[in-house]
Amino acid sequence: MVFSLSLSHKPAVSAIDETFERLIDEAQYRIGDLDTPEIVIDCSLVQWISSHAIDRLIRLHLEARRFEQCVVISNASDFACDVINLTRLDRIVSVRFDAAHERMSSPHFGS
Fold first, then answer.
1. How far lies 18's CA from each of 7, 28, 53, 56, 65, in Å?
2. What is the mean pLDDT of residues 9-27?
3. Which SUPFAM superfamilies match (predicted)?
4. How many domains does the chain have?
5. What's the pLDDT score for residue 27?
């Protein structure tokens, strides 16, 4: 069983980061009650990730480890993949999306 969070509609531009943070908040709120090894955050509609959201994602990862769970980012945009690579979040969270996986594993990614 996998716990997955996603946005149901494309948010207004000013609310994009706020909605990503809401996904993280929802996962953080429910993390102790979940009987699943993975917490999947669907980022298909996320176009912006602030430093505050990165901090919250790291905190979510630390909390998930306490419950022997891992955080998975799915359907990450090119922008989100770049942020994940530049901040080295790929060392603590998994990224699952065919295009993102291909980009991140290519020899030219990040060059």
1. 11, 15, 9, 12, 24
2. 62
3. SpoIIaa-like (SSF52091)
4. 1
5. 84
